Amino acid sequence: MTYTLAELGRTMTGSAYAEAWAWIQRASRRIAQFWTTYDLWLTPTVTEPPPPLGAFQSPPDDPLGGIMRAGAFAPFNATGQPACSIPLYHNAAGLPIGIQLVAAYGREDLLLRTAAQLEAAQPFVHRATRPLSTAHGHPSL
Q1: What total number of domains does the chain contain?
Q2: Mean pLDDT of all residues in the chain?
Q3: CA-based angle 130:51:69, to the nearest 5?
Q4: Which residues are registered as beta bridge partners of 97?
Q5: What is the DSSP string of 28-56?
Q6: Domain-located, residue 84
Q7: What is the domain extent for residue 93?
Q8: How many angstroms separate the Cα of 34 from the Cα of each of 30, 43, 76, 88, 101?
Q9: Residue 141 domain-assigned?
């Protein structure tokens, strides 16, 4: 994937690169306006149950497939808002179901205080849904 991203980058002109950054900056400023009205934004952590390990690997015929799929799971990385996922429930299969809280730039303090209050009201239960595996020397759930 890194090689493919590097090759893709070689095809980008300087003006296209500058315009991409300008677009991100414009989007970031529009998003910053949201925080003049609201303190926190509550969203689902993800829109589907947690994917299995390896779900974001890119096959040789689609080297960007993994990163494109993963992008749907982390929309705030590009614009810089702090966000946290809080596991408040488990589904019937025992997989965590969480909420995501997003705050304005630099308001990690608000996120941490709110998460602490939610944890006090409903303690997070951490449990493995299947035995730990150490295949290839790496533990996994």
Answers
A1: 1
A2: 81
A3: 160
A4: 89
A5: HHHHHHHTTT-SEEEEES-SSSPPPTTTT
A6: yes
A7: 2-127
A8: 7, 15, 14, 26, 14
A9: no
